[in-house]
Amino acid sequence: MKNVMNLTPEEKFKQDVWWILQEIKKDELLTPKGKKVEFSIRGMSKTRSIRREDVDYGFPHEETQRKLLYKLKEWKAIDELEPVDSIFRGSDILNPRIYEFVIRQPKFNELYRQYEEIQKKVGSFNEEVLKTQQLLDKLEDDINRKTKGKAKYNNGILYFRDTEIDFRNKQNQKDLLATLFEDPKKNWYYDEIQDKWDEMIKLGAVDRRKDYWKKFYSAGDDINTAVAIETQVKDFIIKNTKEIRINPKYI
Q1: What is the pLDDT of residues 144-190, one digit of tens each?
Q2: Gap between the Cα atoms of 182 and 180, Å rounded
Q3: Which domains does the chain have, with CATH numbers?
Q4: Counting C-beta atoms within 10 Å of the first and last residue's C-beta, which end of the chain has fewer, N or C?
């Protein structure tokens, strides 16, 4: 079932005309030579008698089908249109469900080809719209997936890959993450971090130890270990003996 609320009245009419032309063509092929074509009104099954107006069930409303037959007669595509009066066949004058008529050529075939061409153009347009929508959906999914994978940090909690990783009781890792997330895209030199952590060293009142950087290096290792355990990502922090940063892939 398709939603048809987005079709204009003209588009819906063309769709319905194309439908009945195809159905008549099928009935014509089953009709013995020299006999009138019989068309039975297509309807809902008894178990689904309530028809919603905003849904395409694959065939027009019953009354619309009757009007379409008379429209084809008006266009001289069919002639001698008469309802079948046979209660035993489920059709009578008050509620006709079977119609007999003669197909007029070449008018019927001309009309058939005209609406066939219209539907081909509509189909090509709809296919392009569908491809465009699928591309937009894919781009949106990619953006959402990338955004979803970005890391955030707040008060000792690292939010990454739908996981909360707790560093509140790990002071060095907590402080290092707080510093790195001040400018997540930056390469931080260890002496910059040391200056932020120790005002006395920044002022030159205390000498910087030669192996001071190992404190941050080790904290980076510990952060990577914790992240890997929770998310299987092993390269959240990238570093060497001089600088450290958050992996750009995750920010």
Answers
A1: 566 566 899 999 999 998 899 999 999 999 999 999 999 999 999 99
A2: 5
A3: 2-129 (no CATH), 152-250 (1.10.10)
A4: N
Q: Residue 250 in contact with residue 147, Cβ under 8 Å?
A: no
- Kindly report the backbone phi and psi dihedral angles of residue 14, in degrees, each rounded to the nearest multiple of 5, phi listed first: -60, -40
Model confidence over 32-68: pLDDT tens digits? 999 999 999 998 655 455 556 555 667 899 999 999 9
**Other beta carbons less than 10 A from residue 54's beta carbon:** 10
- Report the C-alpha gap between 235 and 1 in whole angstroms: 49
Residue in this structure with the two tokens 């079709």, named with its chain if needed: 7
- The pTM (predicted TM-score) of the whole model is 0.50
Strands (E) located in 120-221: 152-154, 157-160, 163-166, 188-189
- Alpha-carbon gap, residue 95 to 62, rounded angstroms: 11
